[in-house]
Amino acid sequence: HKHGCHCTKRLAEMGKHRKKTRTHVPDPELEKVPRSFVLQRGNVTRSDEALMMDMRRVMGPFTALKLQVRQSNTLKDFVHVAGPLGVTHLLIFGRGEKSATLRVARLPRGPTLTFHIDSYCLAKEVLASQLHPKPPGSQYKTSPLLVLHNFGGETLPMKLMTTVFQNMFPSINVSKVNLHNIRRVVLLHYNAETSQVEFRHFDIDVKPTGTSKSIRTLLTTEVPDMSTLEDISEFILQNASGYESEGDELGGESKVVLPQTVRGAGNKASQRSAIRLSELGPRMNLELIKIEEDLCGGTVLHHSYVKKTPEEIKATEAKLQEKKRLKASRRLEQEKNVSKKQAAKEEHKKRCAEGAAKANAKRPRLANDSGSDDDDDDDDDNGGRGQKGSSSSHARIGSKWEDSGSDNQQDDGEGGDGDDKDSNEEEGDEDAEEDDMDDEDVSAKVDEKILKRFFGNSG
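Request: output the structure for the sequence above.
Response:
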C-alpha cells in the first residue's frame, strides 16, 4: 500500500536493539534520607491496626505503605530486608496487658525506646470532629517537618528521645529548602507534669493577607458566579464591610513575609501571608517505659518503674555477658562443624576422582583383550562363511547338472509329446493323493492333542 515503505522502516527498527535513555539522575541526598518500617507484632485490635496505618501515612513517603506482615514473620526477617533497602528505623505497634505499646528501634543495632500509648485518636475521628476538614491529598507526597517542643532536659532518657526523634525524619537545610515541599508538620511536645510526649500531625495552609474575599475568589477560581450582578465592581465591593481576608482572622504571630513563592494564588515572594494549620491526625499520648541498648533487647539503660541497685545492675550485666559468651561459643562450634563436614566432603570427592582415574587406566587393556576375541570370532565367522560358500558352490554345480539334464530330456523327447502329457497327468494325480493323506494325518494329530488336553492320557 502507499505507506508500505514506512511500515518496512518501522519493522526494521523493531528488530534492532533498542537503547534506553535514562532521563533521571539518582539524587545522592535521597540515599541519606531515613526510611522506616511500620508494623504490628502480636495480637492487636482493629483500632491498633488502624493507628498503625495512620502512622504509615505520617511517615510517608519514605516508608513501606503496603508492607505485608504475617504471623510466621519474625523480627529477623525485617532486619535482614532492611539493610539492602536502606531502612533505618522500626516502629512496632503491639498490645500489652492494659494498653497498646509502641517500640521505636534504630537499625541495625539499637537503641530501642518502648512507649506506653496512654491514649490515641485515629485520623478519621480527628477529621470527623472538624467543621471544615482538610481531606488527605498531595500533601503526603513529601516528608513532614518535625517540631520538638520542651525537649531541653540533660538526662539520658531526654537526650536519647531527642536524638531518635530527630533521626526519624529527613533533615532540612535552611539555606536550600524549598518551601513548596513543606506541606505537613509533626509536633512532639513533652509534658513535664505528666512525663508524656504528645504527638500531633497538621497540614500547612498558606493564605494571602491584605486582599478581600472577592479578590481571593477571583484568584482561586477560573470563572466566579456573577449572574445576579450588573457590574464586576459589585462583586468586589459586596464583602468590603467584612474582614479583609481569611488570614486576617488569625493572630499577628501567624502572619509572615514569604521568602519564596509558595503554592496557592497570591502567595508571592516578599508578600505578607498567613499560615494556618489543620489537624490531620492521628493523636497519641506516649509515655516512655524503658530504653534498651540493643535492637529490642540487651542492657536496659532506663526503666520508668523498675529501679535496680548497682549490685543488681552488675549481676544483670554479668548474665548478659555470659549469654553473649555462650552464643559466641555455639557459633564457633557450628563453624567448626561446618568446616569439618566440608573437609569430609572434599575428601570424598577426592577419593571418587582417584577411583575414576584407576578405572579409566584399566579400560585400554580390556579393550585389547576384547579386540583379540573379536578377531577370533571374525576368524570363526570367516570359516563358517567358507563352508557355507563351498556348500553353496556345490549347490550351484548341482543345479547346473540338473538344468543340463532337463535340457537333454527335452531334446530327447521332442517327438513324443502325447506320452509326456499322459505321464504328467498321472504324476499330478499321485501328488494330489499324497496331499490328501498328509491333511488327514495332520487333522488326526490335532484331534489327539485336543483329547489329551481335556481328558488326559486315560482316554
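Confidence is low (pLDDT under 50) at residues 240-252, 376-425.
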